[in-house]
Amino acid sequence: MDPRELYYLNLTRRRFLAASAQTAGAALGVGALSSILGAAPASSSLRAARFPPKARRVIYLHMEGAPSHIDLWDYKPALRQRFDQDLPDSIRQGQRLTGMTSGQSRFPVAPSLFRFSRYPNRQDGAWISELMPYTAKLAHELCFVHSMHTEAINHEPAITFFQTGNQQPGRPSFGAWTSYGLGSANHNLPTFAVLITQGFGNMQALSARFWGAGFLPSEHQGCKLRAGGDPVLYLRDPAGVTREDRRALLDTVEQLNETEFARTLDPEIRSRVEQAEMAYRMQMSVPELTDFSSESEATLEMYGPDVKKPGSFAANCLLARRLAERGVRFIQLYMRGWDAHNNLPSEIRAQSKAVDQPQAALLADLRQRGLLDDTLVLWAGEFGRTVYSQGALSQTNYGRDHHPRCFSVWMAGGGIQPGISYGKTDDYAYNIVENPVEVHDLHATMLELLGLDHEQLTYRSQGRDFRLTDVSGKVIREWIA
């Protein structure tokens, strides 16, 4: 079959309409065809749309390196009586260990060093560590999931899995799928933004493919906003180049690209054109976005003392709120430094102090501005940490290895049941004993809250239809308000 004929046969109706609107000499624009055919432009929220959306955007707080659920959210008071005892074989059950602890002569139980308190919610209360006092005060807003698990035992595949639904690189990220499914709500900002904070502990590599578009059109990849200098590289015009010069250059390049598209029918050409146009518009929108001078002193104080420090978690949480109120669909915050193999107590104190007040302020700020009800907030790492100590154990110090068998995440806003806990682990926080949740289940549920059917949100690549949840995933109805 002629490649051009195959290309047009593979077009969906909406992609055809979008292409028609952009092609010179098109007989009818998207608006006219929409009224005739009952369709809408591809940029609107239609791909795989099946459910009334409860959320319009996502703010995903990813704690890279895997925070210890045992020291933060999963309270196990009986472990204090088991200090330095060997982890029973009946609990471990011969499960896989990393190469960092598989050679240890013993696996001594290390109870959390930190005090837990119970905070009121819609059930019998949420037990939260003293390390998160600000977040704890919002327990009535949070849906805790204590029964997450994953197959990946090392950081790179585990982070890749959480971000893309597959342990192998090359798939589109969650944010890219959201951008593809919902389209843009702000013509002047990208649909998917990425913010990164450097932590205080051992920091794993952070790959740009974690927010990449994979085989989706490149316009859906995350746009990383930098902490220093220009928020986006090459956004500012070079010295001697005016905005009118930039406009003339873009118009010329677009004409050349349209000629090339007519010759090759490569849709990526159109994506590149759109990216250049977006960069042009962002020259005006990004400086205003990152200027906090319009924020009240009360708001700045709420986010904590680091809010005026570019790249801090506090500054990025405030920036996330500003992105959310400007219609950005998916906002990803990475907080690095949670990989506490040794000296966990000191490292987790510093990490928790950096995130606790800002993330609580983000939730409160969204609530007071009427944004939390349609903003879905997720707080998660890529896996949990072991109950046994990695390396030497003392009364005041211990480390914890990777633990994919169970860990805790929480969500808030955007149609999530507030003030509940879901799933349970055993007395060692080692195995799940109630309501196990896979990563694909989490993704499927979040997509439904966005109004998207995770089984219908697909993209054909290399002869097959791909989706974020691959071939599994179920919606957890108990989470949905």
Describe the structure.
33% of the residues lie in helices and 15% in strands. It has 481 residues and is α/β, with parallel strands linked by helices. It folds into 3 domains: 1-42, no CATH class; 51-231 and 296-479, Alkaline Phosphatase, subunit A, CATH 3.40.720; 242-289. The strands form 5 sheets. Strands 1, 4, 5, 6, 7, 8, 11, 12 and 15 form a 9-stranded mixed β-sheet that branches. Residues 1-5 and 21-45 have low confidence and may be disordered.
Question: Short summary of the structure?
Answer:
With about 475 residues, this protein is an alpha/beta fold.
List keywords for this structure.
nine-stranded mixed beta sheet, 15% strand, 481 residues, Alkaline Phosphatase, subunit A, globular, 14 helices, 3 domains, alpha/beta
What is the element layout, followed by pairings?
Elements (H helix, E strand, L loop, with lengths): L2 H8 L2 H10 L7 H8 L19 E7 L5 H4 L16 H4 L23 E4 L6 E4 L3 H4 L5 E8 L5 H10 L9 H9 L9 E6 L25 E2 L18 H22 L2 H23 L7 H7 L9 H13 L4 E6 L8 H25 L6 E6 L3 E2 L16 E2 L3 E6 L7 E3 L1 E2 L6 E3 L2 E2 H11 L8 E4 L2 E4 L14
CATH topology of the largest domain: Alkaline Phosphatase, subunit A
Estimated helix fraction:
25-40%
Strand percentage: 5-15%
Q: Largest sheet, if any?
A: 9 strands, mixed
Number of strands: 17
Q: What CATH architecture of the largest domain would you give? A: 3-Layer(aba) Sandwich
Number of helices: 14
The geometry reads as globular
Counting helices, strands and paired strands, the structural category is alpha/beta
Contiguous low-pLDDT stretches (5 residues minimum) are: 1-5, 21-45
Can you identify the CATH class of the largest domain?
Alpha Beta
Number of domains: 3
Distance between the termini: 50 Å
Q: In angstroms, what is the radius of gyration?
A: 24 Å
Mean pLDDT over the full residue set: 88
